[in-house]
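Kindly inspect this chain:
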Amino acid sequence: MRLRWVQTYHRRVGTIQLMGLSRSTWLFDLDGTLIDSEELILDSFRFATRTVLGAQVDDEELRRGIGQPLIAQMRTIEPARADELFDVYVAHNRERTADLLRSYPGVPEMLERLRGAGRRLGVVTSKMRPSQELAFRTLGIDDTFEVIVTVEDTTLHKPHPQPILHALELLGEDAGAAVYVGDSPFDIRAARAAGVLSAAATWGIFSREELEAEEPDVFYASPHEVAA
Protein backbone atom coordinates (compact mmCIF):
# COMPACT_ATOMS: atom_id res chain seq x y z
CA MET A 1 0.00 0.00 0.00
CA ARG A 2 2.84 2.40 0.88
CA LEU A 3 4.64 1.62 -2.39
CA ARG A 4 1.50 2.53 -4.35
CA TRP A 5 1.22 5.82 -2.44
CA VAL A 6 4.88 6.67 -3.11
CA GLN A 7 4.50 5.90 -6.81
CA THR A 8 1.35 8.05 -7.00
CA TYR A 9 3.09 10.88 -5.17
CA HIS A 10 6.10 10.85 -7.50
CA ARG A 11 3.87 10.75 -10.59
CA ARG A 12 2.00 13.81 -9.24
CA VAL A 13 5.23 15.70 -8.50
CA GLY A 14 6.61 14.84 -11.92
CA THR A 15 3.42 16.05 -13.60
CA ILE A 16 3.47 19.32 -11.66
CA GLN A 17 7.12 19.93 -12.52
CA LEU A 18 6.30 19.48 -16.21
CA MET A 19 3.34 21.85 -15.80
CA GLY A 20 5.71 24.42 -14.34
CA LEU A 21 8.14 24.11 -17.22
CA SER A 22 5.35 24.65 -19.72
CA ARG A 23 4.18 27.90 -18.12
CA SER A 24 5.19 31.09 -19.84
CA THR A 25 5.59 33.38 -16.83
CA TRP A 26 7.97 32.89 -13.91
CA LEU A 27 7.65 35.23 -10.94
CA PHE A 28 10.18 35.19 -8.10
CA ASP A 29 10.42 36.38 -4.54
CA LEU A 30 13.62 38.34 -3.87
CA ASP A 31 15.11 37.87 -0.38
CA GLY A 32 16.05 34.24 0.16
CA THR A 33 15.15 33.29 -3.41
CA LEU A 34 17.09 35.41 -5.90
CA ILE A 35 19.48 37.05 -3.44
CA ASP A 36 21.23 35.73 -0.36
CA SER A 37 20.36 38.55 2.02
CA GLU A 38 19.84 36.64 5.27
CA GLU A 39 22.97 37.89 7.02
CA LEU A 40 22.36 41.45 5.78
CA ILE A 41 18.80 41.35 7.11
CA LEU A 42 19.75 39.88 10.48
CA ASP A 43 22.70 42.25 10.88
CA SER A 44 20.37 45.19 10.23
CA PHE A 45 17.78 43.90 12.70
CA ARG A 46 20.43 43.37 15.36
CA PHE A 47 21.78 46.88 14.90
CA ALA A 48 18.32 48.47 14.95
CA THR A 49 17.11 46.66 18.07
CA ARG A 50 20.36 47.33 19.94
CA THR A 51 20.37 51.00 18.95
CA VAL A 52 16.70 51.75 19.59
CA LEU A 53 15.72 49.27 22.29
CA GLY A 54 19.06 48.56 23.95
CA ALA A 55 18.35 44.85 23.50
CA GLN A 56 18.69 42.19 20.85
CA VAL A 57 15.82 40.02 19.63
CA ASP A 58 16.51 36.33 19.07
CA ASP A 59 17.53 35.59 15.46
CA GLU A 60 14.92 32.84 15.10
CA GLU A 61 12.16 35.26 16.04
CA LEU A 62 13.48 37.74 13.50
CA ARG A 63 13.64 35.11 10.75
CA ARG A 64 9.98 34.20 11.17
CA GLY A 65 8.86 37.57 9.82
CA ILE A 66 11.17 37.75 6.81
CA GLY A 67 9.07 38.02 3.67
CA GLN A 68 6.61 40.52 5.12
CA PRO A 69 6.91 44.32 4.81
CA LEU A 70 9.62 45.70 7.07
CA ILE A 71 7.33 48.08 8.96
CA ALA A 72 5.02 45.16 9.82
CA GLN A 73 7.98 43.29 11.29
CA MET A 74 8.98 46.34 13.35
CA ARG A 75 5.45 46.66 14.71
CA THR A 76 5.67 43.06 15.86
CA ILE A 77 8.94 43.75 17.69
CA GLU A 78 7.88 47.00 19.38
CA PRO A 79 4.74 48.80 18.16
CA ALA A 80 5.44 52.03 20.03
CA ARG A 81 8.88 52.45 18.41
CA ALA A 82 8.28 50.79 15.05
CA ASP A 83 9.00 53.91 12.99
CA GLU A 84 12.30 54.51 14.77
CA LEU A 85 13.32 50.88 14.37
CA PHE A 86 12.40 51.10 10.69
CA ASP A 87 14.51 54.20 10.03
CA VAL A 88 17.59 52.88 11.84
CA TYR A 89 17.30 49.50 10.08
CA VAL A 90 17.02 51.07 6.61
CA ALA A 91 20.01 53.38 7.04
CA HIS A 92 22.21 50.57 8.37
CA ASN A 93 20.99 48.11 5.75
CA ARG A 94 21.99 50.45 2.91
CA GLU A 95 25.42 51.02 4.43
CA ARG A 96 26.05 47.28 4.73
CA THR A 97 24.55 46.03 1.45
CA ALA A 98 27.82 46.01 -0.50
CA ASP A 99 29.57 44.08 2.29
CA LEU A 100 26.95 41.47 3.17
CA LEU A 101 24.69 40.90 0.16
CA ARG A 102 25.43 37.76 -1.85
CA SER A 103 24.09 35.92 -4.87
CA TYR A 104 23.07 32.29 -4.58
CA PRO A 105 25.14 29.93 -6.74
CA GLY A 106 23.20 29.06 -9.86
CA VAL A 107 20.74 31.96 -9.84
CA PRO A 108 22.25 33.86 -12.81
CA GLU A 109 22.33 30.63 -14.83
CA MET A 110 18.73 29.82 -13.82
CA LEU A 111 17.49 33.19 -15.04
CA GLU A 112 19.45 32.95 -18.28
CA ARG A 113 18.10 29.44 -18.87
CA LEU A 114 14.51 30.61 -18.44
CA ARG A 115 15.01 33.65 -20.65
CA GLY A 116 16.63 31.48 -23.29
CA ALA A 117 13.55 29.27 -23.26
CA GLY A 118 11.36 32.29 -23.95
CA ARG A 119 9.90 32.60 -20.46
CA ARG A 120 8.76 35.97 -19.11
CA LEU A 121 10.37 36.88 -15.78
CA GLY A 122 9.22 39.07 -12.92
CA VAL A 123 9.87 39.80 -9.26
CA VAL A 124 7.24 40.11 -6.54
CA THR A 125 8.77 41.20 -3.24
CA SER A 126 7.83 42.84 0.05
CA LYS A 127 11.08 44.79 -0.15
CA MET A 128 11.02 48.56 -0.67
CA ARG A 129 11.92 49.73 -4.16
CA PRO A 130 15.06 51.69 -3.20
CA SER A 131 16.39 48.59 -1.39
CA GLN A 132 15.47 46.35 -4.33
CA GLU A 133 17.20 48.69 -6.78
CA LEU A 134 20.32 48.84 -4.60
CA ALA A 135 20.42 45.05 -4.38
CA PHE A 136 20.10 44.70 -8.15
CA ARG A 137 22.86 47.24 -8.80
CA THR A 138 25.11 45.52 -6.29
CA LEU A 139 24.64 42.10 -7.91
CA GLY A 140 24.41 43.31 -11.51
CA ILE A 141 20.95 42.00 -12.39
CA ASP A 142 19.29 45.31 -13.31
CA ASP A 143 17.90 44.36 -16.72
CA THR A 144 16.72 40.80 -16.13
CA PHE A 145 13.00 41.23 -15.39
CA GLU A 146 10.01 42.57 -17.32
CA VAL A 147 8.14 43.55 -14.17
CA ILE A 148 9.11 44.23 -10.57
CA VAL A 149 6.46 44.63 -7.87
CA THR A 150 7.67 46.05 -4.55
CA VAL A 151 5.92 46.94 -1.32
CA GLU A 152 5.01 50.41 -2.59
CA ASP A 153 3.01 49.04 -5.53
CA THR A 154 0.07 47.45 -3.67
CA THR A 155 -2.04 48.22 -0.63
CA LEU A 156 -2.06 44.58 0.52
CA HIS A 157 1.00 42.36 0.82
CA LYS A 158 1.99 38.71 0.94
CA PRO A 159 0.50 36.36 2.02
CA HIS A 160 -2.36 38.25 0.30
CA PRO A 161 -2.35 37.49 -3.45
CA GLN A 162 -2.61 41.14 -4.55
CA PRO A 163 1.13 41.63 -5.33
CA ILE A 164 1.24 38.52 -7.56
CA LEU A 165 -2.02 39.45 -9.26
CA HIS A 166 -0.69 42.97 -9.85
CA ALA A 167 2.42 41.57 -11.55
CA LEU A 168 0.26 39.40 -13.78
CA GLU A 169 -1.94 42.37 -14.65
CA LEU A 170 1.13 44.42 -15.65
CA LEU A 171 2.32 41.56 -17.84
CA GLY A 172 -1.13 40.90 -19.30
CA GLU A 173 -0.89 37.25 -18.23
CA ASP A 174 -3.39 34.87 -16.61
CA ALA A 175 -2.70 33.04 -13.35
CA GLY A 176 -2.86 29.73 -15.19
CA ALA A 177 0.22 30.74 -17.19
CA ALA A 178 2.37 31.54 -14.16
CA VAL A 179 4.65 30.04 -11.52
CA TYR A 180 5.68 31.85 -8.33
CA VAL A 181 8.96 30.74 -6.74
CA GLY A 182 9.62 31.72 -3.14
CA ASP A 183 11.37 30.57 0.00
CA SER A 184 8.87 31.57 2.70
CA PRO A 185 5.48 30.33 3.90
CA PHE A 186 4.10 33.78 2.95
CA ASP A 187 5.17 33.15 -0.65
CA ILE A 188 3.44 29.78 -0.87
CA ARG A 189 0.22 31.12 0.64
CA ALA A 190 0.20 34.09 -1.72
CA ALA A 191 0.82 31.87 -4.76
CA ARG A 192 -2.00 29.52 -3.79
CA ALA A 193 -4.41 32.42 -3.20
CA ALA A 194 -3.46 33.95 -6.57
CA GLY A 195 -4.12 30.70 -8.41
CA VAL A 196 -0.57 30.32 -9.77
CA LEU A 197 1.66 27.28 -9.44
CA SER A 198 3.48 27.51 -6.09
CA ALA A 199 7.16 26.53 -6.11
CA ALA A 200 9.17 26.32 -2.89
CA ALA A 201 12.81 27.39 -3.05
CA THR A 202 14.41 25.32 -0.32
CA TRP A 203 17.84 26.92 -0.71
CA GLY A 204 16.64 30.10 1.04
CA ILE A 205 16.00 31.36 4.55
CA PHE A 206 13.19 28.99 5.57
CA SER A 207 13.67 25.26 6.09
CA ARG A 208 12.15 22.57 3.91
CA GLU A 209 10.07 21.43 6.89
CA GLU A 210 8.54 24.90 7.26
CA LEU A 211 7.73 24.96 3.56
CA GLU A 212 6.35 21.41 3.51
CA ALA A 213 3.74 22.52 6.04
CA GLU A 214 2.37 24.91 3.37
CA GLU A 215 2.01 22.09 0.79
CA PRO A 216 3.48 23.87 -2.26
CA ASP A 217 2.95 22.34 -5.68
CA VAL A 218 6.64 21.67 -6.25
CA PHE A 219 9.97 21.88 -4.42
CA TYR A 220 13.28 23.04 -5.85
CA ALA A 221 16.39 22.16 -3.85
CA SER A 222 18.63 24.52 -5.81
CA PRO A 223 18.43 27.06 -8.65
CA HIS A 224 20.04 24.43 -10.88
CA GLU A 225 16.82 22.36 -10.67
CA VAL A 226 14.58 25.18 -11.90
CA ALA A 227 13.68 24.58 -15.55
CA ALA A 228 16.69 22.29 -15.90
